[in-house]
Amino acid sequence: MKAAMLRSVLKRSCSTTVPSASHVMRRGFSSESSPERKVAVLGAAGGIGQPLALLMKLNPLVSKLSLYDIAGTPGVAADISHINTRSEVAGFMGEDQLGQALEGSDIVIIPAGVPRKPGMTRDDLFNINAGIVKSLCTAISKYCPNALVNMISNPVNSTVPIAAEIFKKAGTYDEKKLFGVTTLDVVRAKTFYAGKAKVNVAGVNVPVVGGHAGITILPLFSQATPRANLADEEIKALTKRTQDGGTEVVEAKAGKGSATLSMAYAGAIFADACLKGLNGVPDVVECSFVQSTVTELPFFASKVRLGKNGVEEVLGLGLLSDYEQQGLEALKPELKSSIEKGIKFANQS
Fold first, then answer.
1. Is 72 annotated as a binding residue?
2. 164: annotated binding-site residue?
3. Residue 122 annotated as binding?
4. What is the DSSP letter of 216?
């Protein structure tokens, strides 16, 4: 596949931005037309990390791409560095090189940790990934405390609160700069809705709020555009499929992986939105799991306006249907528990 075709994937943003995509994605994007931006990917040799690193290499807003993992990164970095796009690529391996990987980063994307496998519970995932996230965030607070942090490592409902507590302990916490990446929920909701409504997916927008696991994922199909007259049962089925999207892929891969490719795409889309915000592009709006007062919960996913400081504004939920209102109330106890679990882990260990 030609490089230009590969780069075009980033044009299909799930943001509500209306940039001149053909301009920002054109070949030969120079440093004169965009600020220098360093992006670090932690877990870059993994199942999500490798395709995510590839997609970030294709993003013309990135000038330096730093790839870190505990093993295998030099090979990934060497491979990706041969791609003829703007960014300079460097690979770092092992804890002793983590600081060097992070220094000067504008955005740190964290897909590190283990993926979900068939039969694996969220507790299983938590027990492994929580410690990894804690260690990485401790390093971030030391080496690039002002970076925007895009958390992909699951369970996001707990790892984002862990990160917040680690940053608080280090005295570097800025709620405007910590994001749980829930973009894959939006990507799935758009895809499934477009298929059912028989509309062009490129023009579809569906806000997804709540959290990033199971019933805490609440797609607001009543606010989807373009409007489609779908029956209540169809909306319920779309909601359930969006909530179970990860399980659908895990089962389809039959023990040989999770939703690595679609997650990498979603992570690249969200990072692109963050870069545009940092660069002053107006009206960049994405759904993300952030510190929030939209509900009584301390963290919540909703539409967020991105800007030069990260979060410019956390937007409200808007008008919900009765079904969505019920879903909102139903998700709160589970999301509250996941948040508290993350906070407890960060403060006890």
1. no
2. no
3. yes
4. G
pLDDT of residue 239: 98
Angstrom distance (rounded) from CA 15 to CA 173: 26
| pLDDT tens string 215-241 | 999 999 999 999 999 999 999 999 999
Q: Please indicate whether residue 23 is annotated as part of the active site.
A: no
Distance CA 10, CA 60 (A): 10
Tokens standing for residue 169: 């302990």
265 in Cβ contact with 9 (< 8 Å): yes
Where do runs of H (alpha helix) occur along the chain? 3-7, 21-24, 49-57, 73-81, 98-102, 122-143, 156-170, 183-197, 232-243, 245-252, 260-278, 322-348
Query: pLDDT at position 157, please?
Result: 98
Tokens linked to 136: 């990485």
For residue 183, CA distances in Å to 14, 60, 99, 190, 302 come to 8, 20, 28, 11, 11
Closest CA to 40 of 71, 58, 63, 13: 63
Burial (CB count within 10 angstroms: exposed 0-12, middle 13-18, buried 19+), residue 5: exposed
Has this prediction a pTM greater than 0.85?
yes
pLDDT digits (tens, 9 = 90+) for 239-280: 999 999 999 999 999 989 899 999 999 999 999 999 999 999
**DSSP per-residue letters across 241-254:** HHHTHHHHHHHHTT
Catalytic residue among 212, 276, 303, 336: 212
